[in-house]
Description:
Layout: E1 3-12, H1 17-28, E2 37-38, E3 46-54, H2 58-66, E4 73-78, E5 86-92, E6 96-102, E7 108-109, H3 112-121, H4 125-135, H5 138-150, E8 157-160
Helix pairs in contact: 1-2, 3-4
Amino acid sequence: MPTRGVVYVHSSPPAVCPHVEWAISRVLDSRITLDWIAQPASPSTWRTDLSWNAEPGTGAQLASALQQWQMLRFEVTEDPSPGADGERIMFVPGRGIYRAATSANGDLMIAEDRIRALVATAVDGESLRHGLDKLLGAEWDAELEPYRHAGDDSGQNWLSQVS
């Protein structure tokens, strides 16, 4: 049973844009052409997004394909499907990948063992707050937020993969 998701490339150097299209096309096994627009948050870069339908696990494959270009800023989401949690994956240069499961409404789901480990090791309220921020990917969100808002007026590409 297919699922759906969205790839947001928040910033890419123009020379890398064709490579991003080829990587996404390879994962989705379908030739795609993306509509790139200037990224106001980083004037020398471009941005795009793509909605996709494919098999569960495709979001992770897309993120893996894109992270080979360490200068990209991107997010990949995958909706939950029968037998599989959803996912949110973010990548920021110099910070790397953040990956978390998501619920049906898109909230991040942090595993109970990770919360228990944090509570067991937190020495005060500040260390607990810092640990929760880390579990929730707050540093990635903070770095990507200006890039997200810069594209509020952009359109969205749609792609349905036929098996």
